[in-house]
Structure formats: C-alpha cells, structure tokens
Amino acid sequence: MTGIWQDFVTHQGQLIDGLIVSLQLAGLTLLFGLPGGLILAIAGTSRTRLTRYVAIALTEIGRGTPALVMLQLVYNGIPVTLSGLLSAGIALALTTAAYTSEIMRGGLQAVPEGEIEAASALGMSRWDTLRDVVIPQGLRIALPSLMSFSVIMFQATSLAFTIAVPELMSQAKSIANSNFHYFNLFIIAAVMYAAITISASAFTDRVERRLSRHV
Amino acid sequence: MSLADAAASKTTSAIRLDGVEKRFGDHLVLKRISLEVQPGQVVALIGPSGAGKSTLLRCINLLERPTAGTITVDGVTVHADHEIKERDLAALRSRVGMVFQSFNLFPHMTALRNITLPQQRVLGRSKAEAEARARALLSRVGLADKADQYPARCSGGQQQRIAIARALALDPKVMLFDEPTSALDPEVGLEVLKVMRELADEGMTMAVVTHEMQFARDVSDHLVVMGDGDIIEEGDPHQIFADPQQARTRQFLRAVLDRE
C-alpha cells in the first residue's frame, strides 16, 4: 500500500498530466460525437429515403467496428497525417456518434405522438416541432443512457495509448516500464479513472433530478 | 386557381366539405361526406364510437389526409386527389385551431410558454406581443395565476383550458374540438364547457365532437348525427333530440339519454 502511494507521489506530475490528456480526449470525443449522434438520429427518421439509408449505414458501420480498429484506421490508415490526439478524437467521436444515435433515436421516438400532432395542428413546421418539442424532451429521456455511455467513452480513451497519445494509461505504462512497478501503476491508473467515473455518475444523478423537477 | 376554387372561395361558409372520403386500406371510414358550417355557427357531431366523427374532424385540418373530396376553410381549398402543397397546408392550419381529448400540451414548457411559442413560431410575433396575448387569454379562461406552472401541476380541466388558450392565441377562424371533455370527470368538464359556451356566444365558428348531449342540444346551432362513416341525420338540435327521423338516431339517443 505504501509502495503504491510512494509511486503516486513520485510520479504525480506525469500521471496528472496523463489524466488531463484523457479528459481532453474524452471532451473532444463527446464534443463531436454527441452532436453527430443527434444528427444521425434525426437523419435516421428522415422522410427522404436517401438520407435515411445513409444515416443507417453510418450507424451500422460505426457500431460494427471496434473502437480500437477505428482508432488505427484513422491514425495509420488514411493518407492524411493527423496528430495522435486528433486521430483518437475523430475515431472515438465516430464510435460515439454511431452508438448514441441509437440511444437518442429511442428518446426522440418516446415523445408522445399527440404532442407532435398538436404542434402540426398549430401550424408549426416540422423543423420547429423537432427543435422545440421533440428534441428537448427526447434528449431528456435519453440523458441517463447518454451520460453512462459518455462514462464508457471516457474509459475507452485509454485505447489511445496504442497510438502514442500521452494519456493516463500510456503514462502509467511508461512509468512502469522504467521502474517495473506494473501492479502499483495500473492500480493508480485504475483508481484515477474510477475517481472521474464515479463523480461523473454522481453528477448524472443530480442533473437527472434537476431536469425532472416539473414532472 | 381553377373555376371550382374560385366558386368555392366566394361561398360564405367557414368550413365546406365536399365528398370527403377516408379509407384505411379496405376499410371505408368516411363515406363521401359533405358538410357546411357557416361563420359563427356551432356544429355538434354526435354518434356512437367508430362512427367516424373524430376522423371527419381531423380531416378538416388535414391531420388525417382524406382519400377523396375537397375541403375549404375560410377560402383556402385543398383537394385530396392533388398533392397538398406545404404552403396550402400551412394556410389552412393557420385558420383552424384544434383542441384534443388528451390536451396535448407540451409538458416541458410552462402554461405561458405553451401559448407563446406557437405565436412566435407560426405568426412571427415578438416575445412581448405573444406574452401579452397569452396572459390575456389565460385570464379569459380563468387561469391567469397558472402562467408559470407546468402542465403536470395543473388539473385536467385547467390543462384543457390552457390548450384552448393556446389554440385561440393564433387567431383561428374556426375551432375544432375533439371530445374535449371525455378525459375529464364530469364536474371538471363543466369548467371547459363553460369556456366553450362563452366562445360560442362570442361568435366563434366551432365544430365539436362530443358525448355531452346537453351541450349538443343547448349550445350548438346545428347537430350532425353520424354512424358507420356517414351522416345519418342533421338539422336543428332541439328538433332532432325531440323527434329523431331515423331509427339509428333514435336508438343512439335512447341509449345515451336514458343513462342520464
């Protein structure tokens, strides 16, 4: 136990830097992945067949491909050279968009048909109905699942160590490679990931309670 | 505009249905119905469930697309056999307000926001203008103090009155009511009927699908009895209640009136 603490104290600068990179990567992933998911979800219910098929195809490809494969594909596979962080952000955002589009579609479809009917009887356009009635309620319904998926994606940022992004996992591994305290450093990394994950879950609960105040 | 359209727009009817038919697959729900409602008239539609009353009402603002026939509301004509243009649809719906059995308020908005949002989006009113109108209408339906409440915090009768205010805020020429009190217990339904009666007295053109026989008899100017997708009988409400001409009407009235 004291050994673990000792290792943490000695290498805390590097580990915390790693955690910050992990959080930045998660931020990047969600910043592009969640709006992407919403666009795919809406496009998936479009009345235009082409739009619908493209959205469904993207969703299925995104969900069918492991995040690690996506990561390697974006970093090594495409002819454009991007930084590791950006490649990882793009790859994980694609995965996030594909998975969350399903979650969001479920939420959007749970908005009662009667309200959509009322909006059209009032003469509101399809777009206004979507923006004012369907999306705010649909996202609220989807929110708990979206937040837990976001936590999973935060954990998935550790995959980026395979393309040399200096995030928490790769920092822990590189320290362990030099001092051979593999057990200690992976325990430290696990606890640091858990610290973020658990506080994110607590935050989710609070947001959920806040949003359902009027119900 | 074709000759038929020009002729239709010259008539004074607020609502005019010509040969409106609705099919769901093989099932004929409305059998070529024609009906006219004059400005300021209150028409009550009664009849057994499954008669097609609600479907007919929903055809008037095209929530249900008729499979044949034409619909004219306040000079705007839509033909079922032509493709309906987005512009005509918007023009028609802007003239027609609708109140549903299940209220269908937007639950994530306050009563006030429920009423201001459509005004801003559909009529392009400013927020201040929309709010002034919404508050005026809320006090008119007796709910000035509920402006900042969410629908879930209001009783069914209050929700329905908010829904009426929401529809009225768009200055419709015609109001459609689809069993507005059926989801309410009788006592609460009275608050809604009172608002509707006031609206009728002020000269609003109304088409009301209802099971409230007293309202149909005493408030409406014209009674339409429907059965099996067709109009069985129509005319003066008091006369039909006192002396129905059709056996099917008699049977229906006996069933509903003997209960009271």
Automatic annotation (TrEMBL), chain A:
Record's subcellular location: Cell membrane
Q: Which domain of life is it from?
A: Bacteria
Record InterPro entries? AA_ABC_transptr_permease_3TM, ArtM/GltK/GlnP/TcyL/YhdX-like, MetI-like, MetI-like_sf
Question: Which sequence ranges are marked TM in the entry?
Answer: 20-41, 80-99, 141-163, 183-203
What does the UniProt keyword field contain? Answer: Amino-acid transport, Cell membrane, Membrane, Transmembrane, Transmembrane helix, Transport
PROSITE patterns under this entry? ABC_TM1
The answer to whether keyword Metal-binding applies is no
**Membrane topology type:** Multi-pass membrane protein
Ranges for the ABC transmembrane type-1 domain?
A: 19-204
Q: Name one Pfam family in it.
A: BPD_transp_1
Family from the record = Belongs to the binding-protein-dependent transport system permease family.
Question: What protein name does the entry list?
Answer: Amino acid ABC transporter permease
TrEMBL record, chain B:
* Localization annotation: Cell membrane
Q: What is its main location?
A: membrane
What's its membrane topology? Peripheral membrane protein
Q: Which InterPro entries match?
A: AAA+_ATPase, ABC_ATPase_HisP-typ, ABC_transporter-like_ATP-bd, ABC_transporter-like_CS, MetN_ABC_transporter-like, P-loop_NTPase
A GO molecular function held by the record = ATP binding
What keywords is this UniProt entry annotated with?
Answer: Amino-acid transport, ATP-binding, Cell membrane, Membrane, Nucleotide-binding, Transport
Residue stretches making up the ABC transporter domain: 15-253
Which PANTHER family does this UniProt record tie to the protein? AMINO ACID IMPORT ATP-BINDING PROTEIN, GLUTAMATE_ASPARTATE IMPORT ATP-BINDING PROTEIN GLTL
Annotated family? Belongs to the ABC transporter superfamily.
Q: What is this protein called?
A: Amino acid ABC transporter ATP-binding protein
- The organism named in the record is Planosporangium thailandense
Its taxonomic path starts at: Bacteria, Bacillati, Actinomycetota, Actinomycetes, Micromonosporales
